[in-house]
Design a protein that fits this description.
heterodimer, A: alpha+beta, B: 2 domains, two-stranded antiparallel sheet, elongated
């Protein structure tokens, strides 16, 4: 199930933004999105400029899912469509020791 | 072996004389018809109730609760990954097209083709980065640019990296060198 770049930025990253600080770093061919927590850069994901105005295909979404430390595509779609809350994502990163208090 | 109400083993030893005689006595006294059948055990009212319950259960439409949905989705993903692996090739990236960094050693990456999107993807799970393109060369070229930018993205914040990105920075320091 592809996700448009617009939805990815506004809904998926928008949801993560509720608990984390997001920094964008534009690159030559890809835009990088950095996820920060307590002044630590904890995750980084990127998507191609070629995807702008288009959909991000499942093949690419599966790489983004891994970069965001999600276990299943359902969780990525869940961030977009709401069942997977920002608190759930926070708990997941904590469980995986990607973040610590 | 049975002989004159005695149970005798093959070696000729008497095993159980008493019980042997007892069972023969029973079979002489009773016949099979003396034992109650299912009809006589269950009165007709009870039988009717049982039949009604069975027919009610048969007529009910079963409701399926999808309690294994997430597990099934996870298994489907694993199957898709395995199918993708069959089409994957492992290729070495020997050098970068960069004027800022060089590779100290080749990096081995996965090259996959996704026919449904007509897309080639170069993936490096160790560094969690990928490149994409309409053909193999464009995907490799894209990956090299992403690798270089990822290197400098991590370098600028190397004192502030979380544990996972710090590990990736260590890998990058081992394989890349600034010119």
């Amino acid at each position: 199930m592809p996700i448009s770049v617009r939805d990815f930025k506004s809904r998926v990253i928008g949801k993560i933004k509720e608990k984390f600080e997001i920094k964008e770093a534009p690159g030559r061919t890809h835009d990088f999105i950095e996820i920060w927590y307590q002044d630590k850069k904890v995750c980084e994901t990127h998507y191609s400029h070629g995807s702008e105005g288009k959909d991000i295909d499942d093949s690419i979404l599966s790489k983004i899912k891994r970069q965001l430390k999600l276990d299943r595509m359902e969780q990525l779609y869940g961030l977009k469509n709401c069942p997977f809350k920002s608190q759930d994502y926070f708990n997941l990163l904590k469980e995986k020791n990607v973040i610590s208090d | 072996m049975k002989e004159d109400n005695k149970l005798i083993s093959k070696k000729g030893k008497v095993i159980n004389e008493t019980s042997s005689a007892f069972f023969q006595g029973i079979s002489e006294t009773f016949s099979l018809s003396d034992f109650p059948t299912s009809d006589s055990l269950f009165p007709s009212v009870l039988k009717q109730e049982i039949n009604e319950t069975i027919s009610q259960e048969k007529s009910q439409v079963p409701v399926f609760v999808d309690i294994h949905g997430p597990e099934i989705a996870e298994l489907q993903e694993k199957i898709e990954k395995l199918e993708q692996k069959e089409e994957q090739q492992i290729i070495p990236i020997q050098f970068l097209e960069s004027d800022r960094i060089i590779l100290k050693q080749p990096i081995f990456v996965n090259l996959s083709y996704y026919p449904e999107n007509k897309l080639y993807i170069i993936d490096c799970p160790e560094l969690d980065i990928y490149g994409e393109g309409r053909d193999e060369h464009k995907a490799i070229e894209d990956f090299k640019i992403v690798l270089e930018e990822f290197y400098f993205n991590l370098k600028k914040d190397k004192e502030k990296l979380g544990s996972d990105l710090a590990n990736k920075w260590r890998i990058l320091e081992n394989v890349c060198k600034e010119k």
